[in-house]
Amino acid sequence: MAIKFTLHKTCAQSGARLGTLETAHGSFETPIFMPVGTQATVKTLTPAQVEAIGAKIILSNTYHLYLRPGHRLVEKSGGLHKFMQWPGSILTDSGGYQVFSLNDLRKISEEGVSFRSHIDGSKHFISPEKAIEIQQALGADIIMCFDECAPYPADRSYVLPSLERTLRWAKRCQDAHSNVEKQALFGIIQGGMYHDLRARSAEKMIELDFPGYSVGGLSVGEPKPLMYEILESTVPLMPAYKPRYLMGVGSPDALVEGVLRGIDMFDCVLPTRVARNGLALTSFGKVVVRNNPYAEDFAPLEEGCDCYTCQKFSRAYLRHLIKAEEVLGLVLISIHNLRFLMRLMEKMRQAIREDRSLSFAKEVLAKLL
Fold first, then answer.
1. Which residue, 38, 187, 259, 287, could crosslink 280 as a Cys pair with Cβ 3.0–4.6 Å?
2. Angle of helix 156-176 relative to helix 195-207, nearest 10 degrees?
3. Of 362, 356, 25, which is closest to residue 182 (Cα–Cα)?
4. DSSP string, 91-115
């Protein structure tokens, strides 16, 4: 098996789970947040910096790496781990979300998706088989089936045939996947905001017996209470002995709510994206560093944070860097934001160990919201 997942316990207060996931490039405890390295880099940070904040697994993007520099070049270099010099585990998404977000630049058929590159307008085609070919060349530890991510809102008349196509594509991905000893292929549960369609997708996807499953098509514009409602009805249908991954979710409140509902893995560009706008994540909500109140604030971003940024620098200095458009400001806030989420997940795991995940979550959310 390419991965081994061990479920250690489920919290007595909630559906929160504590587990261990092992890949060829190391093991890590779950629940876990995965920083996103879209183009074979976590933006503004070196691999050593990402490792220093406690990251054990990162996500890279199949669509972007296919377009640039090309999956065959990455393969020729020795695979994604060697190409980007990342020693830990890597998950690659299938590129489905990016392709489907192109809207007018793509056309869906049973065979796959024709689209134009957002970079130069060149024509491309990705099928389930092609998505697997690309991901096998990249060499990630965990790869994803090619799926159709329905938009929000979407009528039932659109979502039903969309999820049926995703199920057929999942079987084609499974048939095309030959590197099963080194790469774990995860199935993706779709179904929009319809509970019965989510249940159908989960049932049929689980019949294909993938080593792990993800919940896709959430955090696409729907209200968070609706996302949590869908998770509450969908997650219990997923196998308890396999990892559960919620795609594209990374705000602190959503991580906590997702863990309570039994999710093991998360990813999102949010912590580094908002950092590039001078926004820091803290236990007491967001800090917009460029704002005037921080001009003479010589405290760290967050008291008690063990990240390099908080140990060394003040809000006043970070504000100066942002206002002066110095790249170091983006680097330092990115380090803090990612470490903040790593610490949050560490604390959630400890709370699960001690059967107090719900009470801990209430404390966290009361400060954040």
1. 287
2. 10
3. 25
4. EEE-SHHHHHTTGGGEEE-SS-EEE
Q: How far is CA 88 from CA 4, 50, 128, 133, 326, in A?
A: 15, 10, 27, 22, 30
Whether the predicted pLDDT of 103 surpasses 80: no
The pLDDT score that the predictor gives to residue 260 is: 98
Positions marked catalytic: 93, 267
- Give the residue-averaged pLDDT of 218-237: 97
134's tokens: 């690309």
Continuous H helices in the chain? 47-52, 62-67, 71-77, 80-84, 96-100, 128-138, 156-176, 195-207, 224-234, 252-260, 270-275, 308-312, 315-323, 327-353, 357-368
Which backbone phi and psi does 107 adopt, to 5 degrees?
-140, 125
- CA 15, 34, 30, 96: dihedral to nearest 10 degrees? 60
Confidence (pTM)? 0.97
pLDDT tens digits for 305-360?
999 999 999 999 999 999 999 999 999 999 999 999 999 999 999 999 999 999 99
Percentage of the chain exceeding pLDDT 90 = 93
The region, left, alpha or beta by phi > 0 then psi within -120 to 50, assigned to residue 53 is: alpha
Q: Is residue 270 a contact partner of residue 250, using CB atoms and an 8 Å limit? A: yes
**Would the pLDDT of 292 be above 90?**
yes
CB 177 within 8 A of CB 130: no
How far is Cα 280 from Cα 286, in angstroms, rounded to an integer?
6
Please say whether the beta carbons of 48 and 330 come within 8 A.
no
Confidence bin at 241 (pLDDT 50/70/90): very high
Specify whether the CB–CB gap between 1 and 24 falls below 8 A: no
Q: What is the pLDDT of residue 102?
A: 76
Once rounded to an integer, what is the mean pLDDT over residues 128-136?
97
**pLDDT-based confidence at 115, cuts 50/70/90?**
confident
Contact 184, 141 (CB under 8 A): yes
Contact between 44 and 273 (Cβ < 8 Å): no
Sheet of 106-108: strand order equals 106-108, 113-116, 123-126
